[in-house]
Amino acid sequence: MGKILSKYLRDNGEGDLMHWCPGCNSLHIYAVNSGVPGKNWSFNGNVEKPSFSPSMLINRGTPDKTCHYFLTDGVLQYCSDTAHHLKNQHVPLPPLPQWLRDTTPPFTTKEEQDDIDFLRDLSDEERDLLTEYYEKHFKEAPGRTNREWLELAKAERADSWVDSTHQRIGKLDGG
Predict the structure, then answer these.
(1) Is residue 78 within 8 Å of 88, Cβ to Cβ?
(2) What is the C-alpha separation between 174 and 158, in angstroms, rounded?
(3) Hey, which of 47, 55, 64, 71 has its CA 20 to 30 A from 80?
(4) Where are the alpha helices (DSSP H) in the chain?
(5) What are the residues facing 28 on neighbouring strands?
(6) 5: which DSSP letter?
(7) pLDDT digits (tens, 9 = 90+) for 90-115
(8) Which residues contact 119 (CB under 8 A, 6 or more apart)?
(9) Tens digit of each residue's pLDDT (9 = 90 or more) over 7-25
(10) pTM of the model
């Protein structure tokens, strides 16, 4: 199955690049070296924060199985015609699952696998909150886990609720 290039990408043995899609729970393949003019994606060469152009559109025969996204600087930007739960969301490219990685050197830590499992188990409301918070604050601290991002988002939402409640109480008290 080719060789691993980073914890996010592997070569399929024919020069094409594969990554894991957390929405489909499967591999997606970018043909970057197909040998057919006009049938290749461009790749920025960064195996840690890959970018491909144009967008990836996977249609398994029916609209309810469509996966459409841009992969830019290691972030999957799912489009509105995507059928799965990550539609209209931006999520960091997850590491390849352990079973797709070479055994040496190990690229998955227990924390990374826990983070992948955590994302898979989120409710739609938590996923929306995480996405919104992530988009606002990612550049401030890109090394956080998704669990840490969600805890921060929930704390910010709670603080906002307390502040608005205090303002309403102050207005009732004549303040």
Answers:
(1) yes
(2) 24
(3) 47
(4) 110-120, 124-137, 146-172
(5) 19
(6) -
(7) 999 999 887 777 544 444 566 666 66
(8) 22, 91, 94, 127, 146
(9) 899 988 777 899 999 998 8
(10) 0.57
